[in-house]
Structure formats: C-alpha cells, structure tokens
C-alpha cells in the first residue's frame, strides 16, 4: 500500500481551477519529484495535500482520507511541509523555530535528541540558536525551514522548491542531507523542484505536471532520459 | 510641587490600568489584526460579576480569581461564537459586530444590575502606606497588581510552549498550521487572556471611578490612545504608552486644559499618533504590497 | 431611473404629503424625525457605504449642525430656515477638515479615530469656556417655528412638510451625485483604491470631499432635528447617537439611497418595539438585530427589497 495516494485531485483558488484531476502514489521510503514549468501547479499540489487550498478528490495518507481536513490535523498525522518562501517565523529565534517544529510531540527526550541530530546535519544552526531567524542568510533560513519540518519526525516530508535562491554548492549539500534523512530515518520525500536535473538525480520516481495535469510519470532515471523532458526541462 | 508629584503618581496608578487594558487590546490585535471595540464592556461586565460574588459573601481575592477565570471563559466563548463566523468578512461587518457586542454587554449589564452607581471594594488598606502624602494604598496596590499581571504575561509568552505557539500564530498563522498548531483555539485563547487582563483592569479601576455600566467608555478611549502611542502591535509599547497617557491625562488636566476636557486629550493623542506616526513609538511599520 | 420607479417615487412622495393630515400630531412628529434621520443616514452612507470610509463619529456632525441651528436661532435670532444652509456650510467645512487627516487612516484605524470623536463630543459641548454660546450642560431651548403666511395647518404639520421638502431636495441631489461620475469614483476608491488612483482618480480629493458632503448632510439633518425637538443638550449627542446611525445604514442597506429611508424607519420605531420586548435593555435588542443583519442580511433591507423586486419584475428593478 502506498504511503500517500491521490486520485482525481482537483484544487482551486477561489473560482479558478488550477489542478484538473491529478493521480499519483508515493511509496514508503521513496523520494518522489514533481517537475514542471512555472505555474504548472506544482506548488498547488503540495498545498492541496496539506489542505491549504480548496480541494476535491480522494487523498489518502496511510490509508486514511485526508482531503477536506484542516491543515493542522493533516500535519499531526505526520506530514511536514516546507512551503514556498520557507515560512520561517522571522521574528522568533532559531531555537524557537525549531521547537515549534516539535510543538505537537509529547516525547521530550526524543525531541532533544532529534535537535542534536539536526545540529549534526546543519552545524551552522547551532551557532545561530539565539539569533532572530529573520537575520539568517538565505541558505541558513532554508536549512532552518527543513530542520523545523524534520523536528516533527514526519513520515512524509513535502519540500517546495528547496533550491530556490540558493548557491549550487548549498543546494548539493542540502540534497545530500535529504538523501541521508531518507535512507537513515526512512522519511519519505515529495519534492517539488524547478531544478529538474538535481531533483531527478535524487529521486526514485518523478511526475511531470503541465497546466494542472500529470503528463508523464515513471522512474526518475527513465524520465531523465526522455527526449522531450531533456529538451524542455533539462536544457539539452 | 507636592501637588504636581501627586498628579504624576496618581497618573501612574491610573496609567497602570490603562496599560493593562491597552495590553489586552494589543494582544488581540497581534493575533487577529483587529481592534476590539468591546474590550471595555467585557471588562466592565466581568467587574460586575466580581461585585456579585463579593456581595454574595465571597472574600475579595477568591472572587478576584474566580472573576478572572470567568473572564477567560467569556473571551474564549465570544471569539468562538461571535467573532469566528466573521473572521474573513469585510472590515465594516467586523466593526459592526464589535459595536453590537459593545451595546449588548452594556445594555445587558444595565438591565441585570440597574444603572445606579455602586461602590466596589478595594483589597488594599484605607490608610496610605507609610503615611505618605502622595498615593493612596489602592493606587499603589493597583500599580503593583498591574506589574504582577505584566510579569506573568511576559513569562507566559516568553517561556511556555503555549505562549510560544500564540506568538507564532500572531506572526504567521499559515506556518503555525504547518507545525500543527490549532490556530482557531489559539485565537480563542488570545481573546480569553485579553478578557482576563481586562477584568483585572476593571476591578482595579472600579474602586476609583465607582461601578456603573458606562464606566469603561472613557477609559477604553485612553487605552486606545495608549496602545496607539506605544504601537498597536507592541506589548511593551502598550505598557509604556499606558503609563504615559495616565500621567499626561492628569498633568494636562490639572494644569493646562482643565478637568472638563480630559477626554479630548485622548482624542487628540489618537488623531495625533495616527497622523504623525501610525506605528506608534515602538511598533513596526507596515508596508502594504500592491 | 425607469418610468416604473419614477412613478413609484412620485406616489410615495404624494402619500408622504398627505400623511400629516390623517395621523395624530405625535405621529407626525415621529415621521418628521424619520425624515431627519433619513437625511443623516444618506450622509453617512455616502461616506461609509459608497466610499468605504468607516465613521463611528457622525453623531458629532449631527451635534454640530444641531448646535449651529440652536445658537443661530436662540442667541442671534435667526429664522429657522436660514439655519439649514448655515449648518450645512459649517459641517461641510468641518467634515472636509476632518477628512484631510483621515486620508491617512484606513478601516479600523479610521473607525477608531471617529469613535474617539464621537466619545469626546459631549465633553467638548459641556466645556465651560463655551458655555455662553452652548448653554453648557443645560443646553438650549428653541422656539417652535410657526407656519408661514397664516396657512391653516398646525406647527407640527408645517414642520413635517418643511422637512419633507428639504429631504426630497437632499435625496434628489444625492441621487444625482451618486449615480454619475462622482458616485462611480467613490465606489472605485472604496473597492480598489490603488487601481482607482492608477486610473487617474484623485483619491485624496474625492475622499475629503466625501467626508465634507457626508458631514454636510448629517449637519443639515442635525439642524432640522434640533428644530423639531426644540432642544439641544450635550447628552443628546453621545457616542450612542453615532452608533445608532451606524445601525441605521447597516440595517437599511449600505451603498443604497432607499436604504437611508428604511434605516431611518428602523431607528425611529424599533427602539419602541425593543422597549416593549425588554423594558430595560432596548440596546441589547438593537445589538442582536445588528448581529442578525450582519449574518443573515448583509445587504440590509434595501438589498432584500432589491432581490425581491428582481424576482417579481425580472430585470427591470432600479
């Protein structure tokens, strides 16, 4: 059984329909990439999964339906979302941001050990613990956003354009850490990216979305070899 | 000189009460971006509840505590039942709802308790502390209570997980949802806390101005002025603003414009701040993006 | 306006003219007040309904108009009809002046500033340095105007007809203003003020003028009201008056001319009904009405009537 399954997912912003019936499935332990041009509906897909936009269709997480539920309830089931723009609490400190990530957890000791583990991935955050999150650099804020999501100890991590605005070296570091988190901690990842090459290198499966519909799906390396994809999204 | 010192100190005492009410206003504003026009009436109604409890024979401090809890519940209920349905409505609808709340509370209180002025006891001794000539014990006590409330709130917001969650909601409701915070209940709790703080303010001012359904009207205006002066989204600013307004009101009233026009001080302050520096002394400047 | 609507209005005005002769003097007095409130509500509606600037302090302009009339009549011996243009002029200027700084205030902040104005008005009126003119806490008593030319009607009826005439004029002027370019500009500013400015509408000028005109209407209503009641005193003009006006336009219907009339009928007669329901808490009933209207009938009575007419007559409603 897939960890997350969506059938006929439709989403609208007010009267405007943006997603026209998307089907996909995410297996436990996998990394799935969602690719597409600007405005294709990639971000909307993630937001629809979290109940942040008006959604119709059948979405199941671990077998239970989550479509139509409140964001905060979906999150409590184990889905962490790093949104477009990072969604950092800019006026709170780094530490406060991280602790908020663990807000719903009751296992205090495990929270502290998770915090330590986060610091092994992102040592820079430990240095900036008492600093106001808004004063961190772009790269550090991205690390903070991902860390905050990881503090939930999610089963599924949704990442919306994590490479946005980051220097290539930082993007590589970040993606390496994502691979580690996926393999070592069995966190499934759903990754929305415009940087198709890097996303396909990391992912097991990929979906290509155009104007609110899935036009291509399959194993990541197959998608990477597809001529049309190479020309439109990989630039060669 | 003596008289001047007395005016200043007395101003600090009432200023503490304005500070509490202003803090309540700021708390609701921070979380909901709304100015609660009914804050004064909620505080007044709670004070009447306290009066009933004390009249029924309960000791002052137990009645005080019970009233604070009552106000907490009142705030939560009002937010969930009355405010939530219009959260995303146009501003005018929201203002109208606030006004409706205001008049319903005011009128209901007058109906239940009648409009005759009542005295409200002070828990502090009648004789001035240490026989000083500047402040009555109640005035000193009021400042003390205000400070205790402020410290408790500060500790709550700064050091407890719930307080952190509320601060998060005030800043970024969407991200708050993404970490699993039940934003709706945080809003309700914010209202509850604000109502509780307001009740404390009401119980502190009632011995001075006497209990009557219209007692909070002018005080609310001063609290608005204080909150604006300090910065409508700055709790610390609201507190400083409150003390400042209290002193200003007394000093200007005694020496410059006469006691008749004291309310106009509030009016002038409000308009002045909104014109010259709408974000107040300590607030953040908001930029609206097109 | 469609022919059907024009006929309807003409019929209404004709009925209105006949009313004072078929009902008691007291009723006539109440109806006079309805007309007065209708003018005041039209004023508030221009500002809040059409232009989106929330005012919780319009009672202050009503008070200024009322006191202008009282002072002119009682202290300076002016004839009652001359007080109207005077009150209008004073309030036009006062409103415009208040509107200038108000340009920088939006939504809740403007509501707050006008609320402050409304709350402090009685104190300003009681100010003892002005007592010589304002009569202080006691207020001023005004003589009732006599019907002119020895007409065979009593003073109440004359006052009613006079007020009716003024109301008709004010409404026609208002209707003309609002259905033309000015009205559209006001609405554009209310709904999308940045886009409106980009289109070349001088938002600052329109908004200040809206304040001025709105205050003028309410001021004239205040003068008429003072003459009808024959008395002005500071405590007649508390914040509750401003709130009553707000109730009036919400219930009557925002951005609607007929709404002013429905609202006026509501605020004149419902308090009596509310009094019956609950002797001591009429305002609580008022408040419940308010909440009810916001949740259930946000477009007010005028909106409901419009929808009803649409269903009955198809597309030809006003």
Report what the structure shows.
The complex is a heterotrimer of chains A (236), B (290) and C (318). Chain A has a domain at 1-78 and 154-163 and 186-236: Rossmann fold (3-Layer(aba) Sandwich), CATH 3.40.50. In chain A, 39% of the residues lie in helices and 27% in strands. Chain A has ten helices and ten strands. Chain A has helices spanning 42-49, 71-76, 94-101, 108-121, 123-127, 138-150, 168-185, 196-202, 220-225, 227-234; strands at 4-13, 16-26, 31-35, 54-61, 64-65, 79-82, 156-160, 188-193, 205-210, 213-219. In chain A, the strands form two sheets. Chain A has a six-stranded mixed β-sheet, with helices on both faces. In chain A, strands 2-1-4-5 form a four-stranded antiparallel β-sheet, covered by helices on one side. In chain A, strand 4 (54-61) and strand 5 (64-65) form a beta hairpin. Chain A is globular and about 45 Å long. With 290 residues, chain B is mainly α. In chain B, helix 1 packs parallel to helix 5, helix 1 packs across helix 9 and helix 3 (60-83) crosses helix 8. Chain B has helices spanning 2-32, 39-55, 60-83, 91-113, 137-159, 161-171, 173-178, 183-209, 216-230, 235-255, 262-276. Chain C is mainly alpha-helical and 318 residues long. The longest helix of chain C is centred in the C-terminal third of the chain and has 27 residues, at 203-229. The N and C termini of chain C lie close together (7 Å). Classes of the chains: A alpha/beta (236), B mainly alpha (290), C mainly alpha (318). The interface between B and C is large, with 45 and 45 residues.
What descriptive keywords fit this protein?
heterotrimer, A: alpha/beta, Rossmann fold, six-stranded mixed sheet, 10 helices, C: 318 residues, mainly alpha, ABC transporter involved in vitamin B12 uptake, BtuC, two-stranded antiparallel ribbon
Quick summary:
With 290 residues, chain B is mainly alpha-helical. Helix content of chain B is 73%, strand content 0%. Chain B has helices at 2-32, 39-55, 60-83, 91-113, 137-159, 161-171, 173-178, 183-209, 216-230, 235-255, 262-276.
């Amino acid at each position: 059984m897939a960890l997350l399954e969506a059938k006929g997912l439709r989403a609208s912003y007010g009267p405007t329909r943006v997603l026209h019936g998307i089907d996909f499935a995410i297996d436990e332990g996998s990394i799935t990439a969602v690719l597409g041009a600007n405005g294709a509906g990639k971000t909307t897909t993630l937001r629809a999964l979290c109940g942040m936009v008006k959604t119709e269709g059948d979405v199941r997480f671990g077998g239970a339906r989550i479509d139509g539920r409140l964001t905060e309830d979906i999150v409590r089931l184990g889905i962490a979302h790093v949104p477009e723009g990072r969604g950092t609490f800019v006026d709170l400190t780094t530490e406060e941001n991280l602790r908020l990530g663990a807000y719903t957890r009751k296992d205090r000791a495990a929270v502290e050990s998770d915090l330590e583990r986060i610091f092994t991935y992102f040592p820079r955050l430990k240095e900036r613990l008492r600093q106001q999150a808004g004063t961190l650099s772009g790269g550090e804020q991205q690390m903070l956003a991902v860390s905050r999501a990881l503090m939930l100890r999610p089963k599924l991590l949704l990442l919306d354009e994590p490479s946005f605005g980051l220097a290539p070296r930082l993007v590589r570091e970040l993606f390496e850490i994502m691979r580690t988190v996926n393999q070592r901690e069995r966190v499934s990842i759903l990754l929305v990216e415009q940087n198709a090459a890097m996303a396909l290198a990391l992912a097991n499966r990929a979906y290509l979305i155009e104007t609110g519909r899935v036009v291509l799906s399959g194993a990541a390396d197959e998608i990477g070899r597809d001529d049309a994809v190479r020309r439109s999204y990989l630039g060669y | 000189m003596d008289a001047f010192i007395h005016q200043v100190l007395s101003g600090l005492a009432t200023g503490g009460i304005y500070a509490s009410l202003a803090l309540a206003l700021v708390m609701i504003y921070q979380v909901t971006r709304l100015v609660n026009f009914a804050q004064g009436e909620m505080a007044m109604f709670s004070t009447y509840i306290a009066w009933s409890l004390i009249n029924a024979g309960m000791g002052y401090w137990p009645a005080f505590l019970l009233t604070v809890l009552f106000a907490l519940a009142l705030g939560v209920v009002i937010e969930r039942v009355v405010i939530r349905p219009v959260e995303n409505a146009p501003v005018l609808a929201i203002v109208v709802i606030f006004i409706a709340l205001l008049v319903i509370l005011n009128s209901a209180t007058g109906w239940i308790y009648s409009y005759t002025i009542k005295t409200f006891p002070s828990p502090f001794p009648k004789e001035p502390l240490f026989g000083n000539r500047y402040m009555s014990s109640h005035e000193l006590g009021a400042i003390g209570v205000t400070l205790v409330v402020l410290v408790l709130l500060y500790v709550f917001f700064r050091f407890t997980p719930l307080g952190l969650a509320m601060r998060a909601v005030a800043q970024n409701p969407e991200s708050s949802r993404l970490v699993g915070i039940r934003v709706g209940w945080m809003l309700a709790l914010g209202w509850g806390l604000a109502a509780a703080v307001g009740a404390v303010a009401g119980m502190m001012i009632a011995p001075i101005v006497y209990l009557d359904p219209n007692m909070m009207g002018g005080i609310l205006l001063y609290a608005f002025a204080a909150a604006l002066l300090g910065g409508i989204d700055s709790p610390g600013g609201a507190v400083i603003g409150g003390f400042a307004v209290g002193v200003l009101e007394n000093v200007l009233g005694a020496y410059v414009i006469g006691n008749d026009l004291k309310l106009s001080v509030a009016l002038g302050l409000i308009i002045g701040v909104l014109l010259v520096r709408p974000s107040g002394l300590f607030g953040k400047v908001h930029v609206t993006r097109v | 306006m469609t022919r059907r609507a024009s006929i309807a209005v003409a019929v209404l005005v004709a009925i209105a003219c006949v009313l004072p002769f078929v009902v008691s003097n007291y009723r006539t007095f109440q109806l006079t007040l309805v007309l007065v409130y209708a003018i005041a509500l039209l004023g508030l509606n221009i500002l809040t309904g059409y232009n989106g600037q929330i005012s919780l302090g319009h009672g202050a302009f009503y008070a200024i108009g009322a006191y202008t009339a009282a002072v002119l009549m009682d202290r300076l011996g002016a004839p009652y009809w001359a007080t109207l243009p005077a009150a209008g002029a004073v309030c036009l200027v006062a409103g415009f002046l208040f509107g200038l700084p108000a340009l920088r205030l939006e939504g809740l902040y403007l509501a707050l500033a006008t609320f402050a104005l409304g709350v402090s008005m009685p104190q300003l009126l009681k100010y003892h340095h002005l007592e010589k003119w304002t009569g202080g806490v006691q207020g001023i008593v005004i003589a009732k105007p006599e019907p002119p030319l020895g007409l065979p009607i009593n003073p109440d009826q004359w006052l009613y007809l006079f007020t009716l005439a003024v109301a008709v004029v004010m409404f026609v002027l208002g209707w003309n203003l609002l259905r033309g370019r000015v009205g559209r500009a006001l609405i554009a500013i209310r709904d999308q003020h940045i886009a409106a400015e980009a289109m070349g509408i001088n938002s600052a000028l329109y908004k200040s003028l809206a304040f001025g005109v709105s205050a003028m209407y309410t001021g004239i209503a205040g003068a008429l009201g003072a003459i009808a009641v024959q008395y002005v005193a500071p405590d007649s003009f508390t914040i509750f008056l401003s709130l009553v006006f707000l109730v009036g336009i919400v219930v009557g219907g925002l951005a609607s001319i007929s709404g002013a009339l429905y609202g006026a009928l509501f605020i004149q007669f419902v308090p009596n009904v509310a009094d019956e329901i609950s002797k001591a808490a009429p305002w609580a009933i008022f408040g419940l009405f308010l909440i009810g209207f916001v949740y259930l009938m946000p477009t007010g009575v005028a909106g409901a009537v419009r929808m009803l007419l649409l269903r009955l007559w198809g597309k030809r409603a006003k």
